Amino acid sequence: MDFSTHPFSLCIEEERCDLVMQLFGFDPVVVSKFESVGDLLSVFLNRRYYPDLVSLEQIRKLGTRTAFPDKLPWHSVMDYWDHEKVETIIRDIYLSEDDAINALKPSQRFRIHLAFQKDMFACEYVEQPYSYPHPVLEANDDIGRTFSDLSDHIRVKEKVKQEQAMYKAGCRIADAQNVYMPKQAQYWFTEPQDLIMWLLRYVMEHDKYIKKCEFCGRYFVPKRNTKKYCSEACANTQRDLDSFCGVQEAKQLYKRIVSNLRDKGQRMKDLQLPYHRPDAPGDWIKPQEVLKAFYAENAEYMNDLRNAYESAKKAPAPTEDQVRAFETAKATYVDWLQVQYEYATSLELDRDAYFRPD
Ligand SMILES: [Zn+2]
After folding, report:
1. How many whole angstroms from 288 Cα to the centroid of ligand 1?
2. Which of 13, 21, 142, 328 is the most exposed place for a label (fewest CB within 10 A)?
3. 228: pLDDT strictly greater than 70
4. What is the mean pLDDT of the segment spanning 305-320?
């Protein structure tokens, strides 16, 4: 099997999963390592190939200098799969509100789903007939060398006997050195569509859950089924949001400001590019600093809102003044958030900048 016909090679080793790609138009092979198959699947579902799949460092190795890695042709190659159909399957199997569906384990739901719709899962792949535990042997020079030296040291005329003798010696080394040979399998795919269907099937058959983060809406496959958020950062922000005194508008604005600045902060860090300050052209500012100042000021506004809320909404029979005070605090806070939102979105990436030499 080679990359000319099958540009995607997937290697599963216990929980770990490596993806090797030889993308059209690019010479070097890009490798990404994931903690689990579910983590790799999430990258596709969220369609964040950059930077979740290919880092900036890897793009640099490809010899491409760009401030917009997510506009490179490889990005659209990766994104060439049927989003709508895949999302429908995920909705049917994982995001249903039907108790009868949710009572079953994912693998059972999948089996039943297959009884009615199977076309999408007829994906093509080639499984490597054997695998060789490179990572284990490469990780330990001594053992790796001992293994490869076996053929020099064991000389038996007959080929089959030679192999048997080497196998026996290999087992002896593994036992003596306490080497654990992990279960490993390798699969080759032609199209991203086949790859994503394979990943999806793997996740379902292993009874893993696919969830949508209740804060940012990204897909994720948690280690434990009770998780609601894709990351610690999202869980923390949600905790803040829970104290919004039921003002949905404020909640949404807050959410947008934070995710806008957080994304820009990450992007700036990745690209090492400055952001322009709209009020002082030529000067630049870190989105992280804007976020920090926002949090500090927000705490004060939130405090005012909470005080008004507690006296108005929690009282058994709030007075008109109390209701009016809450409405005023609410309006003041939402107005302030609106201004913050406009400022956050006005921060722009410096498009003329280029990578600093390493
Ligand atoms: Zn999230």
Report:
1. 18
2. 142
3. yes
4. 81
Cα(325) to ligand 1 centroid in Å equals 34
What gap in Å lies between CA 131 and CA 193, rounded to an integer?
A: 24
Q: Residue 261: exposed, middle, or buried by beta-carbon count in 10 A (0-12, 13-18, 19+)?
A: buried
37 CA distance to ligand 1 centroid (A)?
19
Distance CA 304, CA 314 (A): 15
pTM: 0.67
Q: How far apart are the C-alpha atoms of 53 and 29, rounded to whole Å?
A: 13
DSSP 3-state of 275: strand
What CA–CA distance (Å, rounded) separates 260 from 202? 34
CA distance 184 to 133: 7
**Using CB atoms within 10 A of its CB, is residue 122 exposed (0-12), middle (13-18) or buried (19+)?**
exposed
Burial of 190 (0-12, 13-18, 19+ CB in 10 A): middle
Largest pairwise CA distance in the chain = 101
Phi then psi for residue 42, to 5 deg, are -60, -35
Alpha-carbon gap, residue 133 to 173, rounded angstroms? 15
